[in-house]
Amino acid sequence: MRHADTICGALLAAVGCALIVSGAGFPAGTGGLPGAGFFPQAIGALMALLASALLLRGLRRRSEGPFSIANMREVAVTAALLLAYLLLWGTGWFVVRTAVFLAIMLSLLGQRWIPALGYASALSILVYLAFDAGLNVTLE
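Above: the chain sequence. Below: its structure as tokens.
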């Protein structure tokens, strides 16, 4: 099991399965509306499905050498940013926090700052409006 695809596929499939199981513990919806566990279970199922495809692709290929990460700095920065974002969850300012997080992530991917901030802000506002106005779910 030396392929990056195999290792990452197995880990992501486990996370997807954990989301499905943890989402089942939430109350069911009423009146034909989805309950609190709908989104975690849907995301978990999609993640497990895609991760299984990645896992199978890794198992079909021959070993190409030992597992290594060529861009460890970017991976570490991404993990640190995600951890900081999650630690700040529930502190308010969803739109600002999410826009800053997404702008930094886009800049790491090579996007210039001004367009990255514009895209990130627009996406954060759309997500906030979809959940707050469309689904009546607060993200703050």
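The mean pLDDT is 83.
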